[in-house]
Amino acid sequence: MRDxxxxxxxxxxxxxxxxxxxxxxxxxxxxxGITFGQAVSEMALAGFQGCSIGHKxxxxxxxxxxxxxxxxxxVSEPWTSTYFTIGKMRQRTIAAFEETLxxxxxxxGNELVVAExxxxxxxxxxxxxxxxxxxxxxxxxxxxxxxxxxxxxAGSAGxxxxxxxxxxxxxxxxxxxxxxxxxTDPDLVHLLLDTGHMAFAGDDPLDVARAYAxxxxxxxxxxxRPEVVSRVREEGLSFQEAIELGVFTVPGxxxxxxxxxxxxxxxxxxxxxxxxxxxxDPNKAVPLEYAKxxxxxxxxxxxx
Length: 304
Description:
The chain is α/β, with parallel strands linked by helices. It contains twelve helices and eleven strands.
């Protein structure tokens, strides 16, 4: 078996990092005052090639592209929330998606990431497990048909759509992912494998990687701290409380062994982004330190 340095070589995959190490886009109070300029400079310093887009980034595409180009970074993904499962939101969801697509295309990106947030509990101060939505058959139909439509829009623009399963949403568990994958067009809708969210939900990200290796279009690499997951379940804590307690951390820390997951992707000839992510409180977890730790871990596993 060839090693990962050959099968997941720099001409096949790019290493990115999410800005959620530096601040939190869902919960703006989780913030240490780090500026956009400092964050993207530290991303480059840590050895990454790209990054996600966050709320502190310049909204003007030309200004943002210049700042990223200066640091040798490109855009790994944007984020667009969808609301297909709640009333009268289909056209607004599509319009928001098209706006994001145009912005990312102006930045030179070709990846689009979406997640259905209709009735999601992840932003609420409630038990993230007990209060997450369970979709009806009609809601599932609305979601999957909507995703296929977004996939067509993305494809016609030469871009790829990947769906992000997420804590507190109606597509959170392995069973939810199974239904979504079975009900969408594999040529139009890919899976974003988020190792941390899948493990937090109680399922094995390696099993998901093996089941959908040929359909994975994007990857978020983050780990979990099991003792925090247990506390969230036992005490009925919210998603924000989980983050503040440190439920997520970067590869090379926490409980997830990423080597077999990366081996599985390599076996499936994966090409695309491998993006380090860990929603942590930057007041407790120094972002540059964790970014460098993750990059060193990936250098050890990948061989570059």
